[in-house]
Design brief:
Rossmann fold, 11 strands, alpha/beta, two-stranded antiparallel ribbon, single chain, Dehydroquinate synthase-like, alpha domain, 13 helices, 45% helix, 2 domains
């Protein structure tokens, strides 16, 4: 049984996210229905060893000529070097404007492959087959594609919507526990933004999902995609409400950048910590009752995710974090932008955040 969630907006062609089990084995029929001249898989070295042959056989079984390029696993592959390597391979393989890229992997692969598809011959179709929880609930839906630079995360990219997203719950069974928890952070984020009842379910009956229970995971993926699909449909290019999906990300991206995107914090762990910080900052500014910030922090910590700077084995400097935040994509006119909260399930955008107030907060949080 599968669940199909439409993603539709006035500014882009509608597509569907299919959530279910066994979708890697039936990917060929799903891709062939889009009528490409051929399909080419972009993956990473870890994922291709686990799922590559299944998807390639399915594509070929559906009559599609295909090939595979695998980049090294990890955030470092979101780079100009790997983008050039992928594009060069697509050219060498003779893909044309009717060809299609299949992004098979987590968020790194989806971002890299999606950007390559956006650039190749001024834009060709691609299909997302996310194999991590984080990618299934967040990065595979909505058309954001990007690479990182030494100056920050996701600063070079394009909006390029996929033609289809296939979220196979069975693929999540191959993930290490830390990766499942990392993806769970983005699930919790959706509840924190606009669905308090969902957030409470995630901390109650649904908590088994953070430990890999497939039924809880499936429900969590479906609800997360429903939330994101609605927001993206209203605001594809983050001119308004879509910015709410960045709850925790301004703090989180700054932390990741200061750690040089190493394995000290996964992206999801950084987002979890960033969400807890955003709620505490909201309380400090008199915007959110302390009990609500405590509720958010308790739910995040219960999932085994970090909520305090002291949870990270690194000494952060407030000025360095502020500088990173000032270079964030959401900053406008030299002013910081933060997604803050009035309560669990009630987030909002503040585009006029006082850097000195943030600096004082970071020092209170334990930064030097």
């Amino acid at each position: 049984m599968t669940t199909t969630i439409p993603v539709a907006g006035g500014a882009f062609a509608p597509y569907e996210v299919v959530v279910g089990r066994g979708l890697l084995k039936t990917a060929g029929a799903e891709v062939a229905a889009l009528k490409p001249t051929r399909a080419f898989i972009v993956s990473d070295e870890t994922v291709v060893a686990i799922h590559g042959e299944t998807v390639r056989s399915s594509l070929e079984g559906a009559g599609l000529a295909t090939g595979v390029v695998a980049v090294p696993a990890g955030e470092a592959s979101k780079s100009f070097e790997q983008l050039e390597a992928v594009l060069d391979r697509l050219l060498a393989e003779g893909l044309d404007r009717k060809s299609l890229v299949v992004a098979l992997g987590g968020g790194v692969v989806g971002d890299l492959a999606g950007l390559a598809a956006a650039l190749f011959m001024r834009g060709i179709d691609f299909v997302q087959i996310p194999t991590t929880l984080l990618a299934q609930v967040d990065s595979s839906v909505g058309g954001k594609t990007a690479i990182d630079t030494s100056r920050g995360k996701n600063l070079i990219g394009a909006f390029h919507q996929p033609r289809r997203v296939l979220a196979d719950i069975e693929a999540l069974a191959t993930l290490p526990v830390r990766q499942v928890r990392s993806g769970w952070a983005e699930v919790l984020k959706h509840g924190l933004i606009c669905d308090a009842a969902f957030f409470d379910w995630l901390g109650g009956e649904g908590a088994a999902g953070a430990k890999g229970d497939p039924d809880a995971l499936e429900r969590a993926v479906i609800r997360s995609v429903e939330i994101k699909a609605q927001i993206v449909g209203e605001d594809e290019k983050e001119a308004g409400r879509r910015a709410l999906l960045n709850l925790g990300h301004t703090f989180g991206h700054a932390l990741e950048a200061e750690l040089a995107f190493d394995e000290t914090l996964t992206h999801g762990e950084a987002v979890a910590l960033g969400c807890a910080m955003a709620f505490r900052y909201s309380t400090r500014q008199g915007l959110c009752p302390a009990v609500e910030a405590e509720r958010a922090e308790a739910g995040i910590r219960a999932a085994g995710l970090p909520t305090r700077l002291s949870d990270v084995a690194h000494a952060f400097a407030a000025d360095a974090l502020i500088a990173r935040m000032a270079g964030d994509k959401k900053a406008e006119g030299g002013r910081l932008t933060l997604i803050l909260a009035r309560a669990v399930g009630d987030a909002f955008t503040d585009k006029d955040v006082d850097a000195e107030a943030v600096r004082a907060f970071l020092i209170e949080e334990g930064a030097a």
